[in-house]
Task: structure prediction
Amino acid sequence: MNYRKYESKKDKKAVFRILNECGWTDDEKSKYLNIHLEQGRTIVSEMNYSVEAMAVSVIGEMKYQEEMMKFSAITGVVIGLIARKQGLAGQITAQRIALDALDGAEVCGLSYFEQGFYNNLGFGNGNYNNQISFCPSTLNLTKKVRIPVRLTKKDWEKIHKNRLQRMMYHGAINLTDICTKSEMNEAKNSFGFGYTDEEGNLTHHIWLTGKGKENGPFWVWWFAYQNYEQMLELFALLKSFGDQIKLVSMVEPYNIQVQDLLSKPFFYRGISEKSKYENKIKASSWWQFRILDMEKCLKKTHLSCEEFKFNLEVTDTIKDFLSKDSQWKGIGGKYVITLGENSKAEKGMDNSLPTMKASIGAFSRLWLGIRNATSLSVTDDLKATPKLLKKLDSCLRFPKPGYDWDF
Ligand SMILES: CC(C)(COP(=O)(O)OP(=O)(O)OC[C@H]1O[C@@H](n2cnc3c(N)ncnc32)[C@H](O)[C@@H]1OP(=O)(O)O)[C@@H](O)C(=O)NCCC(=O)NCCS
Result:
């Protein structure tokens, strides 16, 4: 597969044709997509002298424990209807990832259309996120709401700044300002509210879609707050809409069980069942993740357990999608892994140590804390002796990753 960088002047028409064929947009003027394609890391591939494949990424960061990892976010992959099932999607995505890895990305993530496809490129499922829908007037908050400021798409710079200042947990993602700007332009009916400090800086805010619908639902696209008092103030603001708005939906904020804040959640769930305003909680894993640089990832791993070592034989099938001359060919191979305060990965094998065999997707899930080693040995591609699994279970104890930037 040949590929090249996207050039707006030359490629825009063909790229919007394939975007239209996949049902994502029929609007060549879409601010959201144009910003994203032009300022993102977009590559295209031609078939029959026309662009039929496109993959785009942005480089952001992911919090891992207290460290920050360079994060490649695959934000779009699309193939024209005349070019499907030729292997183009797998190849162009692999190429995009290889280029990001060569530019120093340590980890990579994406939202997936179906489980299975990106697993072939070395990805493993992220953890479940809860999507909760509730009637805002049932929020059990007594605090009187302060008057917020209205936020519009023109405020994208201060909104982005405030997003970067938000409380971040293990697994949280920061993307670039172009992502905030383009996401804010994605839906015509989006809007926001925030609170400022005495100097006028945004301290916490909320960005929603659903404006113009008389009774909602409103969808909370994101929250940004620096402490829980600010988070509760944003919930109190949502409650203040409750005389009119019948439903608000959101991905639960990290570490917060929103049901705790609701009165009579089962009663409202029962009476709203199967309605337009159904109160419910739905859990699913909508993102996938993989390690791109084993040595750098392990170097940033700090564990409080007693130091121990094991061999890791890791398979990485992304290599099958890359051209022979690709300078990055995945990270499959043999490593000696040391876990402890100063963890590391070194190429090689030590015959005196126990060995784990795993796909890079399964090992990435273990490293990030999606599931423990025993669980992955049952449902994913990871094998080790019961003794090593037990040791890993007691050593790798992470909080649930808080992947909180939808893309
Ligand atoms: C998804 C999409 C990019 C795939 O494009 P494509 O060029 O046909 O994909 P490829 O040819 O590289 O791969 C297709 C292969 O993957 C396989 N595959 C597809 N979904 C799979 C899954 N969930 N699990 C395992 N394999 C899967 C197919 O069966 C096919 O295998 P085959 O060639 O042996 O029949 C394309 O359908 C598309 O553009 N869809 C609309 C946009 C979209 O959803 N993009 C992805 C956003 S995350």
In short: The CA atoms of residues 214 and 296 lie 51 Å apart. The chain has three domains: 4-111, 130-284, 293-395. The longest helix spans residues 88-102. The mean pLDDT is 96.
